[in-house]
Design brief:
By secondary structure, this protein is of the alpha/beta class. It has one domain: TIM Barrel, CATH 3.20.20. Helix content is 42%, strand content 18%. The chain contains nine helices and eight strands. It has an eight-stranded parallel sheet with strand order 7-6-5-4-3-2-1-8. Helix 3 links the parallel strand 2 and strand 3. The protein is globular and about 45 Å long.
């Protein structure tokens, strides 16, 4: 318990300092706690620290957590690759999906979103480094996919997400995030009503904040090594 408390305090203080350093408004960056491979007990400790937004990569792992922690007024984000046979459960149990990269998955989530729930918040995942082994839409195809998602009434397009190729070079981290920032700002200029730029993880979140991320996704730096 003490370790997670300390980690959250350190990250929150570092995030405020980073916001000041790069002329961001205090509190303008949302912290998404990534709980892949983490226990329900650790998530409960994070909740006790005031954390409400959590990200999961795997449906089977996430459902017992969502059920066990129901009633805590939490916000659940699906951030992993999406298989066609998993869309129904994702549409039923998550508040956000950040990893949409094709029309078919968007259409299935839209059709399977229960009518009594608000529209599913979505981000389009961009393969910013065009890595052949990674999911994500190409930058040049983002407009077509965004336009299609806007026609789906049970989805609400909120922004973009990316996982750049890992590097320890701060300069290279900035370059990748700058590409996503430009794409996001171009969409805004064209009239798309977006508010979320989800980028940055435990190893590169400072560079993401420098490039105007509105949400960073941290796991290991908050919870320690995954099970």
């Amino acid at each position: 318990m003490m370790l997670i408390q300390k980690n959250f305090q350190v990250i929150k203080e570092s995030l405020l300092e980073c916001e000041r350093k790069f002329n961001r408004a205090p509190g303008s960056v949302t912290l998404l706690a990534v709980t892949k491979g983490q226990s329900i007990e650790k998530i409960q400790q994070a909740i006790a620290m005031g954390q409400r937004a959590f990200g999961e990569n795997y449906l089977q792992e996430s459902l017992p957590k969502i059920e066990a922690l129901a009633g805590n007024d939490l916000e659940w984000h699906f951030i992993g690759p999406i298989q066609r046979n998993k869309t129904k459960k994702i549409a039923e149990h998550f508040d956000w999906v950040q990893s949409i990269d094709n029309r078919l998955i968007a259409e299935r989530l839209n059709a399977q979103r229960p009518s009594h729930l608000p529209p599913l918040n979505i981000c389009l995942e961009v393969n910013i480094n065009q890595e052949p082994t990674k999911s994500g839409v190409k930058s040049e195809d983002i407009y077509s996919l965004a336009d299609h998602c806007l026609t789906l009434s049970h989805l609400k397009l909120r922004g973009l997400m990316a996982i750049p190729a890992p590097t320890d070079s701060f300069t290279e981290q900035l370059e990748a995030f700058h590409q996503l920032r430009l794409l996001y700002e171009n969409l805004l200029e064209k009239g798309y009503l977006l508010d979320t730029l989800s980028m940055g993880m435990s190893h590169d979140w400072e560079a993401a904040v420098a490039e105007n991320a509105t949400m960073i996704r941290l796991g290991t730096s908050l919870f320690g090594t995954r099970n």
